Amino acid sequence: MTPTSTSRRMILDCDPGHDDAIAMLLALAQPVWTVEGISIVAGNTTLDNAVRAAGQVLTVAGQTHVPVRGGMAQPLVRPLRTAPNVHGETGLDGPVLPEPAVAPVDEHSVDWMLRLLGEARDAGETVEVAATGPLTNVAAVLRRDPTLAHAIERLVVMGGAINEGNTTPAAEFNVLVDPEAASIVFDADTEIVMVGLDVTHSAIFPGARFDELRALNTPVGTMAADLLDFFLRFHRQQYGLDGVPIHDACAVAALLRPEILQTRHLRVDVETASTFCDGRTVVDLWGVTGREPNVHVGTSIDVDAFTDLMMESLASY
Ligand code: BDR
Ligand code: CA
């Protein structure tokens, strides 16, 4: 069954993370979506920190009815690499946040997704998925039961890049943390959309607009402005930017409104064993491998549409 505009169901799998937090707020603000739950993976920070951070964001946003579940605490085969240089030790350094008002659900998020997607598949239904952290949880689900891919309407991944890296010269953070997982997910039998750094680095949200969020004078507006202020420090220092790429929000926006993302259907393979290119998404732009395309690779995004959607969504709280 193809979901109607009023019955779209979605899962957000994430590792909050400043941009994951904004992505959560964006997803939860959409009346056309029922967010079935927030699934947490270790990445930007430890699993425990990320679960806590998600609970804090939901508490500020008054969305504590949305269930949070913790998933994989480590990548499939490697030790965890986190990003305290970007997100601080807690994953959400910067804003002063309250204690989470509700505890996470006592169920592993991989078990939950197996259950939810299994029920959807058996009922002939589909669920949309945005994955904005390392792909460990999603890969664990698909490894256990590859047919669950048929219950995924579309999977939009924030990760990888055609032409650049942000953690090594060759690799983007989410894919580098768990390249084996990315490799499994990119071969899943459903529509996979990759929103990589080429896209997100073109959609810089200007620092000059952070005050518009603060001027909302709401808990969410203030939290978003504080989150972006902290995120800006890294981007100013590393790239000399006066704004931030809100990577993960781009992926959620592209899931919500596919028309804002331009894509090409291409073969993408993930490097899992290389001294210099580990974690690289190798995108076959010219079809030289002769292999079937497996990923709809984002090439550009309608920056104005994305920014408007974000501002409207954050203002709706
Ligand atoms: C990705 O890495 C993380 O630090 C961000 O949350 C985003 O998902 C960008 O490379
Ligand atoms: Ca993330």
Explained architecture:
The chain has 317 residues and is of the alpha/beta class. It has a single domain (8-315), classed as Alpha-Beta Complex (Inosine-uridine Nucleoside N-ribohydrolase, Chain A). The protein has twelve helices and eleven strands. It has helices spanning 18-28, 47-61, 84-87, 109-122, 136-144, 173-177, 179-186, 197-200, 210-214, 219-239, 247-256, 303-315; strands at residues 8-14, 33-40, 68-70, 127-131, 152-158, 192-195, 204-206, 243-245, 261-270, 281-284, 295-301. The protein has a nine-stranded mixed β-sheet, sandwiched between helices. A two-stranded antiparallel ribbon has the order 7-8. Helix 1 (18-28) runs parallel beside helix 11. The longest helix has 21 residues, at 219-239. Residues 14-15, 17, 19-20, 44, 132-133, 248 line the site of calcium ion (CA). Calcium ion binds at residues 14-15, 17, 19-20, 44, 132-133, 248.
Brief rundown of the structure:
The protein is of the alpha/beta class and 317 residues long. The chain has 12 helices and 11 strands. It has one domain: Alpha-Beta Complex (Inosine-uridine Nucleoside N-ribohydrolase, Chain A), CATH 3.90.245.10.
